[in-house]
Amino acid sequence: MRLHPKYNSLLTVAAIALTAVIAACSTTATSATGPTNPGNASKGDSVNLSGTYDLVFFTGETVDANDGATIALTKSTYNLQATGTFNGKLGPDSGTYVAVDTASAAGVVAGTIVLTSLVNQGSPTQGAFVVSHDTLQVNVSNNGSAQQTMWVKQ
């Protein structure tokens, strides 16, 4: 997922460091889960977010039939298509992702997601995610401000 190509080098370094930490921790992952079955994930597990989701919320922007986005996720890849104003903000984009559950509460699937864009020269973007039934919330930092997105599974 790409947010306007104004990347802060400190954010990039932090994302790379986080990717290394996630890779080190994820070797102990025992299962993967998707948003339709969040009860199977526990702290430290890799999370499979597979599905196709429509953008329903983006911080400070209107999401409608003319301005929106769809993201298709497999177990480890993403493909983002956007329309209208979101075409320049989010996509098109594709790449790989790693989502790791870091929630302490049982039955809650939330944690860290790192997206590595193939379109934007493989620059990783770090964010936080929360899965609830058919809704996926992803928040990323962009030039010091938080960009909140909410996606609903088709």
Descriptive labels:
single chain; about 150 residues; Lipocalin; eight-stranded antiparallel β-barrel; globular
Order of strands in the sheet with the most strands?
Answer: 1-2-3-4-5-6-7-8
Structural class: mainly beta
CATH-defined fold name: Lipocalin
Number of domains: 1
Biggest sheet: strands, sense, closure? Answer: 8 strands, antiparallel, barrel
Helix percent reads 10-25%
Radius of gyration: 15 Å
Individual helix count: 2
Coarse shape: globular
- Overall pLDDT score: 77
How do the helices and strands follow one another from N- to C-terminus?
Answer: HEEEHEEEEE
> What's the total number of strands?
8
Q: What percent strand?
A: 35-45%
CATH class: Mainly Beta
Low-pLDDT stretches are 4-38
Q: What's the architecture, going by CATH?
A: Beta Barrel
Tell me the span between the first and last alpha carbons.
Answer: 19 Å
Write a structural description:
This protein is mainly beta and 154 residues long. The chain has a single domain (9-36, 43-153), classed as Lipocalin, CATH 2.40.128. Helix content is 15%, strand content 42%. The protein is globular.
Provide the fold topology.
Layout: H1 9-26, E1 51-58, E2 68-73, E3 77-83, H2 85-89, E4 93-101, E5 109-117, E6 124-132, E7 135-142, E8 145-153
Antiparallel strand pairs: 1-2, 1-8, 2-3, 3-4, 4-5, 5-6, 6-7, 7-8
Summarize this entry quickly:
With 154 residues, this protein is mainly beta. The chain contains two helices and eight strands, in the order H-E-E-E-H-E-E-E-E-E. An eight-stranded antiparallel β-barrel has the order 1-2-3-4-5-6-7-8.
